[in-house]
Design goal:
Length: 330
């Protein structure tokens, strides 16, 4: 069974409830119908139920089994969520009036449902930029205990099975933090190892990537990766992690033998932690295009409850797959 079929099968066993707020998008409606039909998760759609059902009809998909909530309709649930919102953000000066307006935005209503425990997770981004999906999640759901920074990982599946674990590996942060300090980078490494084992089924071996291997170059950016490695070891002393190292030393045993002979990670890494978002975002896209790798994600890691962000160019399959992954993160 391939990785994505396995993910969907594992999700089906959990019967989680996932919110899909972007019901104006036909791909979302098609995905919702398929997710429910295949038993991958229960779905909540945010929007006017008559319009959703009629749009579904036009698309030839059956959405009767999805729960539908209109965020503009006055209900007890909406009142409770507005109160929750004001309570969570009053230190930022939000008023009842602001909250009443903002909750009409499906991304806010959906995020508040997850926070309140009315849904297990949310998948959005088919019709919204990354920031619009992540900001409500960062403001309302916030980070999990002990984590200060949310980040974004990809499961990369490269055709050459000699890399990673049978060609499967995690790359992070490819999606969220434009600039990180050493402590944050260390946290991202630990969160990525968690994603590697929980979602990708890997036994994590984490390489902290740099343009230097084990002190071969001297630069403040190299020192930052060294400090991040130390931080990650402090947070997770049993984690198999090493750095700093170059990508070839991380992945290729013969290079590792020469550049980092004492490392238990070099040459066998299956979690690649990039030094910043520029490297991570460019790196995963190069591997995706040049090596014809499958890139599954970004999987947003470090939130207290799962919210995941789709690319606006996503397919119906991408929405179905990310919904399954979200169910596994709960
Ligand atoms: N982790 C945890 N909390 C965070 C993080 C983070 N990484 N970033 C911001 N926050 C919190 C802030 O502390 C703040 O909380 P508060 O309101 O309770 O004080 C809240 O989020 C909002 O903060 P802002 O400063 O308003 O948000 P910011 O402008 O930093 O935006 C965002 C956050 C949207 C994640 C921004 O960093 C961003 O745009 N990142 C790049 C996303 C991107 O374009 N990625 C590439 C495309 S994705 C792809 O190609 C796969």
């Amino acid at each position: 069974m391939n990785f994505l079929d396995e993910i969907k099968e594992r999700a089906s066993a959990l019967k989680r409830t996932i919110v899909l707020p972007e019901t104006e998008d036909s791909r979302v409606l098609e995905a919702a119908a398929r997710i429910v039909e295949d038993g991958i998760a229960e779905i909540i759609l945010i929007g006017d139920s008559e319009k959703i059902l009629s749009d579904g009809n036009d698309l030839g998909v059956d959405l009767e089994s999805c729960k539908m909530i209109d965020p503009t309709e006055a209900t007890d649930e909406r009142t409770d969520l507005i109160e929750l919102f004001v309570d969570l953000r009053k230190h930022k000066g939000i008023t009842m009036e602001d909250a009443e307006k903002m909750i009409e935005k499906p991304l806010y209503y959906g995020t508040l449902m997850v926070k309140a425990g009315l849904a297990d997770g949310m998948v959005a981004g088919a019709a919204s930029p990354t920031g619009d999906v992540l900001k409500p999640a960062l403001q309302i759901i916030k980070t999990a205990e002990g984590i200060n920074s949310v980040s974004g990982a990809f499961v990369m599946i490269v055709p050459d099975k000699s890399f990673g674990q049978d060609g499967k590996m995690i790359m992070a942060d490819c999606a969220v933090n434009p600039e990180v300090d050493a402590d944050t980078l260390g946290e991202i490494a630990v969160a990525s190892a968690d994603t590697a084992s929980k979602i990708a089924g890997l036994d994590p071996k984490v390489a902290m990537l740099s343009f230097s291997t084990m002190g071969s170059a001297k630069h403040k950016l190299v020192e930052r990766v060294q400090q991040a490695t130390a931080k990650a070891k402090e947070i997770a002393p049993d984690l198999s992690i090493d750095g700093e190292m170059q990508a070839d030393a991380a992945l290729v045993p013969s290079v590792a033998e020469r550049k980092a002979p004492d490392s238990k990670v070099a040459g066998q890494a299956n979690v690649l932690v990039f030094p910043d978002l520029e490297a991570g975002n460019i790196g995963y896209k190069l591997v995706q295009r040049l090596a014809k790798a499958e890139a599954v994600g970004p999987i947003i890691q470090g939130l207290d409850k799962p919210v995941n962000d789709l690319s606006r160019g996503c397919s119906v399959d991408d929405i179905v797959n990310l919904t399954a992954i979200t169910a596994l993160q709960v």
